[in-house]
Amino acid sequence: MTAVMPGALPAPAGHVGLGDDRAAAPGGESLRSVVERALGDVLAACPPLGAGSPMLHTGAFVVDPPFFGDGDIGQVAVCGTVNEIAAAGAEPVALTLSVIAEAGLPLARLSRMAASVRDCAREAGVVVSAVDVRAVRAGEADQLYVQTTGIGVFPRGAPRRSAAKAGDRIVLSAPLGGYGAHLLSVRELLGYESIISGACAPLASLLALVRGRVPWDAVRAVRPVAGEGLAPVLRALAHEAALDLRVEELALPVRYEVRMALDTLGVAPWHAAGASCLCLLVAEEYAEDVLAALRAHPLGMEAADVGVVLPGSGAGVELVRADGSGVPLAPEPAPPARLS
Known about the structure:
Layout: H1 31-39, E1 53-61, E2 67-68, E3 71-72, H2 73-87, E4 91-102, H3 107-124, E5 127-136, E6 144-154, E7 169-172, H4 178-188, H5 204-213, E8 219-225, H6 230-241, E9 244-248, H7 256-265, E10 277-282, H8 287-295, E11 304-310, E12 317-320, E13 326-328
Parallel strand pairs: 4-5, 9-12
Antiparallel strand pairs: 1-6, 2-3, 4-6, 7-10, 7-11, 8-10, 9-11, 12-13
C-alpha cells in the first residue's frame, strides 16, 4: 500500500488545497485570485518614486495565533513593514505580499487576512503592487506565514539625523505591552483579550506630524517597539549611539489592564511585544515639542518621556525601579515566541 503524505489529500471545498497556488482552487479561483480579490482597490502598480532616494525593507511574519481578537497576521505584516520605513525617515509608498498557506486552511481565513492587508494599506496610504501565494502540506505551517517587502522614498535633500548626545531624552509614543498581553492572553485562555486591544496601526502620519513641528535633526533616532519589546530596542539604540541609557520604571506608560495581564503571565512590560509604539531619542531642548506633537495625534495621546541618554560606552541600559534602585535592563531569558 502506498503511503499518503500528510496534507496530500484533496482539500474540501472552501479550503486551501495543495496545487491551488498554481491551479484553480475550489470555486474556480487560484489562491492568488482569492487574495487579489480581497485586496480590492489597493492592488495597484507602484507609483513613480520621484526625485527622492528609494528605500526597501522586507520582513517575514509568523504570529501565534495568526488570527486574534481585533487583529491578524495581515495587519501585523503591513504595519510592521511601513512603520520600519517611516522610522528610517522615508515615506512608505508600496508593498509586495507573499503568503504561505497551510493545506486545509479555510479560504475565508485567507480572504480575511488579505482584507486586513487592504484596510491597513489604505490607512497607511500605500498600494500592494505584487502578490504571490504558495500552499504547503498540513502541518508544515501554522495556518499562514506572511512576508512583505515595502518600498519607501526619502525626501529629496533630506538631512541626515544627527548623532545622539548625552542629555537627549527617551520618548515613547504609546503605552507598552498591549499587543503582547493580548496574544499571550489568547494563548493561555485568560480572557484579558476582551479588554485589551491587540490591533496594530501604521505610524507614518504620526512621525510626519512630529517632523513637521521640529527640526529634522532634533529627532536623533526612531525605532518601532515590535515583537521582542522595548528592552532590545533600548539596547540597540545604546549600542548604535555608543552611549548608555537610563529609563524610569514609573515613567513607562502601561495601562492598568495590561499590567494586570502581564503580571499574571510573569512578563515585564519592557519585555512584552509591541505593535503601535515608537521609541525616539530626542534632543533635550525639543523634547516638549515632540511630546506635544505626538499627543496631538490620535495614536500618540499617551506619549511619555521615560528616560535620558547618558555618557558611556553603549554597553548598558539602566532601569530605575520604583524604589529608586538601578538595575541593568537584561535580555529576557526566554521570550515568548512568534508574536510577530
